[in-house]
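Methods, example record. To illustrate the input and output format used throughout this study, we show the complete record for ATP synthase subunit b. The sequence lines were provided to the predictor; the line carrying structure tokens was produced by it.
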Amino acid sequence: MNINATLFIQTIVFFVLAWVTMQFIWPPMMKAIDERRHKIAEGLAAADKGNKSLEEAKVKSAGFEKEAREHAHQILVDAEKRALAVEAQAKETASAEAARIIAAAKADAEQEIVRAKESLRDQMSVLVVSGAEQILRREINPQNHADLLAQYKAQL
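The corresponding predicted structure is encoded as:
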């Protein structure tokens, strides 16, 4: 065969093969490559979105943590205030109760003093009557001299 004919046939086969490749092989390959490129781009976008969401979540969690710490601190402060208020109330109640008990004890003591004085007056009047009876050697009738005895009691 002739080299020119071979080159001519090879050129025709090349162009036919190139045409077949461009018509039937190239479009599905380009489609697959584009789909792959699109999936890779979506994956990268999702990864960026995930990183942004992660950063936002970190910021939010730090904010929640700070807020929780502040809330816990506020609860502690409120509890301390409440404890102080309860302690003050207990002291006030105890002081009032002590004052009441002291006042009752004083009143009881005064009543005992009054009763003791009355008892002493009665005993003194009996002694005075007895003494007067012995001095005068006569009996004094307490019913006749009740006014006199009342005056003695008042003087004592």
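Annotations derived from this record:
The chain has one domain: 3-155.
The mean pLDDT is 86.
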